Structure formats: structure tokens, C-alpha cells
Amino acid sequence: MAQYEDITIDQGTDFAMELFLINKDQSVKNLSNHTVAGKLKKTYNSDSSDTHDFSVTIATPTDGVATLSLTNTVTDALKPGRYVYDVELSFNDSSGNAIIERVLEGKAFVTPSVTK
């Protein structure tokens, strides 16, 4: 089951957040051979023109930290208001089966920019 967290994104600014991923036994998740992906949408049913992908960086896979970000160009194009987002972790289990696990989800609030 995914963690739930509401986030705030300031329109027209660079946005980044770090995810610290752990296993059920509370040990640090090794992100080697894992893919992290996240999307932001106005609504769950939004079409692809209203979908924004987070950029994801995993600096050191054994640290279990993934950084999700949006550039100021992307956030500048967002209309102020409420959005929804989620983040998924993908990997293959020991039998080679593809596993997709939602690790984070919530609402995103985009605050309007006065300085443009």
C-alpha cells in the first residue's frame, strides 16, 4: 500500500522532493535494477496532454533515495489549483516477473506565481 502525502508546488519555480525508500523490515531499499516513475495530472481521468512526468534521479542506488523533480518551465505551465500524483517502483522479482509497486500518492497543490 502506498504512502499518502499532499505536496505544494510553487508555479514557475524548480520543484524537487526526495523519497527515502525502505523495505518492510525497515532496511534501506536497494534501487539497483529498479525504475522509479511518477506522474502529475489535473484529475485521475485527465488525457495525456494534461499529464506531466516527474524527472527521477537515483544518485546512489544502495542509499534508497530517489529525487523527483519538475523544472521551472514545467511548473510555469501548470495552472494553479489541485492536481493528483503518484510514484511507482518497477523491478523484476527473482523469477523474472515484472513487479510494479505504488510507493507514494497524493494531492498536489500548485500555488500561483505573481512574478512571471
Explain this structure to me?
The strands form two sheets. Strands 1, 2, 4, 5, 8 and 9 form a six-stranded mixed sheet that branches. The protein has one domain: Sandwich (Immunoglobulin-like). The chain has 116 residues and is mainly beta. The protein is elongated, with a radius of gyration of 15 Å.
Topology:
Layout: E1 3-4, E2 7-10, E3 15-20, E4 35-41, E5 51-53, E6 55-57, E7 65-70, H1 72-77, E8 81-92, E9 98-111
Parallel strand pairs: 1-9, 2-9
Antiparallel strand pairs: 3-7, 4-5, 4-8, 6-7, 8-9
What order do the helices and strands follow? EEEEEEEHEE
The largest pleated sheet is described as: 6 strands, mixed
Outline type: elongated
Number of domains: 1
Residue windows where pLDDT falls under 50 for at least 5 positions: none
Number of helices: 1
